[in-house]
Specification:
The complex is a heterodimer of chains A (100) and B (273). With 100 residues, chain A is α+β, with helices and mostly antiparallel strands. Chain A has a single domain, classed as Alpha-Beta Plaits (2-Layer Sandwich). Chain A is 41% helix and 32% strand. Chain A has helices at 2-23, 43-50, 78-88, and strands spanning 26-34, 55-61, 66-72, 91-99. The N and C termini of chain A lie far apart (41 Å). Chain B has a single domain (7-272), classed as Porin, CATH 2.40.160. In chain B, the strands form 2 sheets. Chain B has a 12-stranded antiparallel barrel. A 3-stranded antiparallel beta sheet of chain B has the order 9-12-13, with no helix packed on it. Classes of the chains: A alpha+beta (100), B mainly beta (273). Chains A and B meet through helix 2, strand 2 and helix 3 of A and strand 5 of B.
Chain lengths: 100, 273
Amino acid sequence: MKHLIKNTLLSLLLLVSISHNAIADTSTYLIRVDGLACPYCAYGIEKKLNALNGVKFITMNLDDGIVTVETQDVTLGDEQLKQLFNDSGFTYRSKEVSHK
Amino acid sequence: MQLKINHSSHTALFALLGSLAATPAMAHNPIFGLGPHVLFKDGVEITPEVKQAKAGNKDKTELALELTYGLTGDWSAGVGIPYIDQSNGSNSASGQGDLSVFTKYRFWREDGPGQQQSMAVALRLNTDTGDDAVSSGSTDGLLGLAYGYEGRRWYRWSALRYRFNGENNAGIQQGNKLLFDLVGGYRMNRTGYMEPDTVWILELNGESTQNTQVNNVDQFNSGGTQWFVSPGIFWTKRNFAVKAGIQIPVASNLNGNQQATDYRTKLVLEWHL
């Protein structure tokens, strides 16, 4: 009986774990930004993106003008990005999104 | 023992360093001139700096702390407070200088891939709040207009500033001053975001000062024009910057009998939070 209860609980835990991983949405945004000329000036972008819930990783390629953001369970919309980059002193142009 | 310097010497010492308190330090802007860059919205900039000027037997050192806040992505404002130590041969004085408040508004910005052009207006007010021995004794203002281009390799700036001075209780009004800056900058290595970054800067700074007036009478040994060539360096890493430069006089046409500036130096540290 004890073995039955234990096995049932373990099975339930495994089922919940699998279900959770299936729900989590990990996305990578490649964001094209104009005005990105210097590393020092880009700190405002880092700070504002890190303040958003769900942002897990940020990197910036200044030569190509691309900010790469990895997120989990959050969607970054065009208007939101436009405001964020304007508040940082730059201009948002476009984004490409890939989902895992 | 510190002696209070008489008015004429104090006037000369004020003029020696007066224009150096004029440019709030922000991001990639010239070291001595004015640039259009502002702070990101809700950002805070902490800026300790030290400036020194020498003209013959007169020298003046100023330690200042400025705090700036980004009101929007194009508008910032802040306060600054200096500590001044100055001497004129055998006499010296030191104390807290005048508290200043400043603001800058970037009214035009054009962004392209890896580059940005912009223009801004700036206003700074030096209040009459410092110790008598080192204060100007009047409320003075500075109005500026700046243009800047920033690219992955090259920089260029130009600016015009006008300093207007009030009259103190002794009837002394320092001559108003027109300042002109033309600046170039170059980045040898295009580094990534988290890497150290160095920009070499060369400025041409011109100053044209009106005569000082005492009780509305022009003082002969005051005012004139000076030109400086000013090399400098701008080093940054992520949210920290170090700026340093020296103004070297290359031409001067000063009224009457005055000592021309030997040199001025400036060292600035900046943190963005």
